[in-house]
Every structure is written in structure tokens, then in C-alpha cells.
Specification:
single chain, 69 residues, mainly alpha, 3 helices, 48% helix
């Protein structure tokens, strides 16, 4: 573990945090490159044909909205 992470964990423990669910936090921020790969690789589907969240992300990303312009 990097020294800065260790110091941060020590600070959290001294602040009253005593339980950690996992060693590292979730990476909730995705790269735009990964999002573009998802959009480009999926075929177009109708809204009623969607069964997975990745298909829904693809549909939303390819939707022509006036806010994208």
C-alpha cells in the first residue's frame, strides 16, 4: 500500500471509521474510450428488444437528442 493511502486510512480510523467494506474504492468513473467501445460494438435494438443494461446504454448513447448538438 502506498504511504499516502496508509496515512489516509490512519486518519479515517482516528476520525472514528472502524469498518471498511473493501480494500480499495469502486471505480465509478469510466473512461470515455470504454463507453465508446460499448456503443460501437452493439447492434441497434428496439426498446422492446432490450434485455440488458449495456443494450440500454447503447440505445441512449445513439439517441439523437437536440441537447447533444
Amino acid at each position: 500500500m502506498f504511504q499516502s493511502n496508509k496515512e489516509y486510512i490512519d486518519f479515517l480510523i482516528q476520525s472514528g471509521v472502524h469498518t471498511f467494506l473493501q480494500e480499495t474504492p469502486n471505480n465509478l468513473l469510466k473512461d470515455k474510450e470504454n463507453d465508446n467501445k460499448i456503443v460501437e460494438n452493439k447492434p441497434n435494438k428496439n426498446l422492446h428488444e432490450i434485455n440488458e443494461i449495456s443494450d440500454l446504454v447503447n440505445l441512449i448513447a445513439k439517441h439523437n437528442s437536440f441537447r447533444k448538438k
